[in-house]
């Protein structure tokens, strides 16, 4: 029912030339796992998303898909760049629940390097970004390290 409702919204947005992309913001992961089993996600969600994304593309729109949390069971980082180079632009931050808030400068640089190595694979499309998370304990130093890492790497 939700996917059908959202397809109606996509069709509505498709009428407007000023809209370049449709944003999907479906967090599918908790801090430690998917909310449902990987097989259930593939059986229930995967083809529905494909239908929605195909519809958006058929209307001349790009797709911006956001998902926070642990989703590696369905989309492992190491495979993303290799499988989607030239098809997807990744927009990713340093994990703000772990590395951004608790990591050292070296750990932050290692994490950003890993993002660049896997999501910028073969000069793929990758946008690194940072958000200020003082409310969850990110220090000014770690914020500065993340900015520095993205600028240097």
Which secondary structure elements does this structure contain, and how are they paired or packed?
Elements: H1 2-14, E1 21-25, H2 38-58, E2 62-66, H3 77-84, E3 89-92, H4 99-102, H5 105-119, E4 125-128, H6 140-152
Parallel strand pairs: 1-2, 3-4
Helix pairs in contact: 1-2, 3-5, 5-6
Features:
two-stranded parallel ribbon; 6 helices; 2 domains; 153 residues; globular
Verbal overview:
With 153 residues, the chain is mainly alpha-helical. It has helices at 2-14, 38-58, 77-84, 99-102, 105-119, 140-152; strands at residues 21-25, 62-66, 89-92, 125-128. The strands form two sheets. The protein has a two-stranded parallel ribbon. It has a two-stranded parallel sheet with strand order 3-4. Helix 1 packs parallel to helix 2 (38-58) and helix 5 (105-119) packs parallel to helix 6.
Strand order in the largest sheet: 1-2
What fraction strand?
Answer: 5-15%
Major sheet details:
2 strands, parallel
| Count of discrete domains | 2
Tell me the span between the first and last alpha carbons. Answer: 44 Å
Structural class per helix/strand content? mainly alpha
Helix content: 40-55%
Instruction: Please write the string of helix (H) and strand (E) elements.
Output: HEHEHEHHEH
Number of helices: 6
What overall form do the CA principal axes indicate? globular
Indicate the low-confidence ranges by residue numbers: none
Using only CA atoms, what is the Rg? Answer: 17 Å
List how many beta strands DSSP finds.
4
Mean pLDDT: 88
Quick summary:
48% of the residues lie in helices and 12% in strands.
């Amino acid at each position: 029912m939700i996917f059908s409702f959202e397809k109606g919204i996509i069709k509505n947005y498709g009428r407007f030339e000023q809209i370049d992309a449709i944003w999907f913001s479906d967090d599918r992961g908790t801090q430690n796992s998917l909310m449902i089993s990987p097989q259930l996600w593939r059986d229930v969600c995967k083809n529905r998303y494909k239908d929605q994304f195909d519809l958006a593309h058929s209307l001349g729109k790009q797709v911006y898909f956001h998902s926070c949390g642990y989703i590696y069971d369905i989309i492992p980082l190491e495979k993303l760049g290799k499988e989607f180079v030239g098809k997807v632009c990744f927009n990713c931050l340093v994990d703000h629940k772990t590395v951004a808030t608790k990591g050292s400068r070296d750990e932050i640089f290692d994490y950003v390097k890993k993002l660049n190595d896997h999501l910028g694979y073969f000069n793929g499309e990758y946008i690194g970004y940072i958000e200020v998370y003082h409310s969850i304990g990110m220090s000014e130093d770690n914020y500065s390290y993340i900015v520095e890492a993205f600028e240097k790497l």
